[in-house]
Amino acid sequence: MGKVLIIGAGGVGTVVAHKVAQNQDVFNEIMIASRTKSKCDAVVKAIGNPNIRTAQVDADNVDDLVRLFESFRPDIVINVALPYQDLTIMEACLKTGVNYLDTANYEPKDEAHFEYSWQWAYKQRFEEAGLTAILGCGFDPGVSGIYTAYAAKHHFDEIHYLDIVDCNAGNHHKAFATNFNPEINIREITQKGLYYKDGEWIETDPLSVHQPITYPNIGPRESYLMHHEELESLVKNYPTIKQARFWMTFGQQYLTYLDVIQNIGMSRIDEIEYQAPLADESGKQVKVKIVPLQFLKAVLPNPQDLGENYDGETSIGCRIRGIKEGKERTYYVYNNCSHQAAYKETGMQGVSYTTGVPAMIGAMMFLKGLWKRPGVWNVEEFDPDPFMEQLNKQGLPWHEVFDGNLEL
Ligand code: NDP
Predict the structure, then answer these.
(1) Which tens digits make up the pLDDT trace of 244-278?
(2) Whose CA is nearest to atom 10 of ligand 1?
(3) 77 CA distance to ligand 1 centroid (A)?
(4) How far is 355 from 59, CA to CA, in rounded Å?
(5) CA of 221 to the centre of ligand 1 (A)
(6) Are 21 and 11 spatial neighbours (Cβ–Cβ below 8 Å)?
(7) The pLDDT value given to residue 101
(8) I need a labelling partner for 187 at 20 to 30 A (CA). Which of 230, 247, 298, 334 fits?
């Protein structure tokens, strides 16, 4: 049916490649490209399908991307590199007539700040080019928006309260590790919290608002209010929402390490001068510039290597309160994903799995013509039904609870 180019060969890229390869009736030509080609080759070797092509690309460089797109001519690019590369990849798509999908919104490297405005600004250009861009198609953002769209379509006349609840009750048996790219993860968690209430955005100190929430098959876990990007598009697309919040669980040990990392300056994203163990021709010591958080990433465990000893599961869902036929009702829709099952299937842990599977399904929706509409869109703007059907088939089955206690 179509040609797909995956950019990024990290934890998420590896899962996308496995899942795309499992659906060759839809994806009949596949390429995986990233900064380090050997990582792409290793993914292809693990999948065992020599027809998957690989390439080296610097996704910060539009010309480099254009050259690759022109030689492979994909129908769609699945961008699972880093949020820094979203705009360069979108630019290259416009220059070469390629459709686009990602799992995280654009962030400038020098500022830990994410919002959709940068990517929404491309709407008219994608429309005029007749190209589709699908934003935020991982789990959260991604399935969280699709769950909300499904709830709005089938179970509510008006959604009033939305709480996205994200629990990782897994254990990787490391003192400290992040479940996806450490740099992006730590930037996200150390930001101020933000939630939406009665038409306004309310800021909270980082991780200062928390409460226990009970997760299915897991039990109560302390959950922290955070800013998360899908809230921005969901309150825009569902204007009846009075309050929208995002909660994520963290263990006490993780938070203690995070505190130390921040207090000793290792989460800084500005450049510092570091006396390198190098000398120039005259024998003078050379100073190099490093970003502490990037250095920390280099010494932390690689999220891709956590899978083997990871046990437990994730549980992510939407807890919704609103009105149906004049009556108040509650609805909870969620998925639980086992880290070990994800590892057995793809060699990656559950967080990469829950992101990579929806990214593949989003590209499948596009290639099947079900989510094909020129412009730049968030996932909740498309029909959720065929996507929800695929979630059940592709390894992320969902469950519903009607009129239960939402705790929130
Ligand atoms: P990793 O760091 O494991 O992988 C990122 C990959 O991108 C690496 O292969 C890296 O190359 C490559 N890359 C980075 N910079 C460039 C560049 N300039 N040119 C080409 N390739 C580049 O990250 P993850 O797989 O954990 O995460 C991938 C994305 O998924 C991130 O954007 C993250 O925010 C998002 N995500 C979304 C979630 C959701 O639910 N929506 C949840 C989790 C993650 P190299 O190997 O050489 O470093």
Answers:
(1) 999 999 999 999 999 999 999 999 999 999 987 77
(2) 8
(3) 14
(4) 20
(5) 28
(6) no
(7) 99
(8) 334
58 lines ligand 1 (CB under 6 A): yes
Q: Which residue has the tokens 């030689």?
A: 71
* CB-ligand 1 contact for 184 (6 Å cutoff): yes
Q: What angle (nearest 5°) sits at the alpha carbon of residue 368, between those of residues 363 and 371?
A: 65
8 close to ligand 1 (CB < 6 Angstrom): yes
Element at 216 (helix H, strand E): none
8 Å CB contact between 204 and 191: no
Q: Count Cβ neighbours within 10 Å for each residue of 311-344 and write b for 16 or more, e otherwise.
A: ebbbbbbbbbbbeeeeeeebbbbbbbbbbbebbe
Q: What is the pTM of this model?
A: 0.96
Determine if ligand 1 sits within 6 Å of the CB of residue 13.
yes
Ligand 1: residue whose CA is nearest its atom 1: 10
For residue 308, the Cα-to-chain-centroid distance in whole angstroms is: 22
Strands 2-7 and 285-290: unpaired
Handedness of CA 365, 370, 372, 377 (dihedral sign): negative
147-190 residue pLDDT tens? 999 999 999 999 999 999 999 999 999 999 999 898 899 988 99
Q: Where are the beta strands (DSSP E) in 169-256?
A: 193-197, 200-204, 210-215, 219-226, 243-249
Atom of ligand 1 nearest to the CA of 354: 40
- Ligand 1: does its nearest atom lie under 6 Å from the Cβ of 335? no
180 Cβ below 6 A of ligand 1:
yes
The DSSP output letter for 311 is B
CA distance 291 to 125: 34
Q: Are 7 and 79 in contact (CB under 8 A)?
A: yes
How many CB atoms lie under 10 A from the CB of residue 90? 28
Longest dimension (CA), the chain: 81
Closest CA to 35 of 14, 13, 12, 59: 59
CA distances from 353 to 8, 25, 133 (A): 14, 21, 22
Task: Tell how far the Cα of 83 is from the centroid of ligand 1, in angstroms.
Answer: 8
Going by their DSSP bridges, the two strands 243-249 and 272-279 should be labelled as unpaired
